[in-house]
Amino acid sequence: MKNKKNYFLLLFAALFLYSFNYLFSDIIKLRRSYLGPFISDYKNLECPQNPYIIVYFGQSNSSNTVRPMFSKTNVKSSFQYDWRTKKCFEYKEPLLGSNDFYSNSATPLVAELEKKIKQKILLVPLGVPGSSVLDWSYGNLSKLIDYSLINIRKQYIKNKIIFIFIQGEKDIDTKKSELEKLKEFKRFYHYYPQRNELSYETYGLALSNLYEKVNRNFPDAIFGIIHSTRCNSEKYNPIRNAQLNLAKKFENVKILGDLDLIPIIKPYRYNGCRLSPKGAKALSKMILSSLNK
Q1: How far is residue 229's CA from residue 99's CA, in Å, rounded to a whole number?
Q2: What are the pLDDT digits (tens) for 128-145?
Q3: Model pTM?
Q4: Spatial strand order in the sheet of 87-90
């Protein structure tokens, strides 16, 4: 009788543990789907010896905001660099260095580049949704650039590096310049500038400062710019012209694509601004065509 009782107790304990583990795993899965992935979900790899490096940064359309996620990335042998840990990982979305937790517009570009070059590709994703050129040039994100560049430079000073900056929507302006608005503001009142309204001059100075920061660390690198000013709006020429002006001044500054040409309707963009897979693939074709030239 006692053995029978112990048997049922053991059976009950086993069933309880099994049910608890099953329930706990479901809770973990639900938590991950809500919070996004953890770094433990990624496989740490030894960094490639002589990679072709792409630093991919800017605002929303350079970060992990492509929705729905790509069903297949078609990326087979490339790596991603995580600036937080200063380590290389398998190429797996969402990318570790960027914000948000969907797909990245760099993915179809990397997949196509794999077919064309023999070197291993190392992508350095740094995109931050909603960021201004002021953030990247003078603000906290300029510290992120400094930190990332120093770490990459230590390991890959002699490597081919391409910087791809996708930014502009945050800073569009259809009204008056900051100086004109400040002149009209009441004396002695607090003035809070609208950081999404930059003039040609202000954007140009900030972009030039960002370029010089990059160029000091990697004078042989290409500083690529993607025109990107449409967000449920028409293209904004002052920012586009400031970007063109920088490309005219320096031989290693190139306009690699024009995101403003991609329609702001579905299926190219899911909210009139951020890219869907079809829009991301169209952007990658532009960049690839420019790099081939």
Answers
A1: 20
A2: 999 999 999 999 999 999
A3: 0.84
A4: 44-45, 87-90, 79-82, 121-125, 52-58, 161-166, 222-227, 253-258
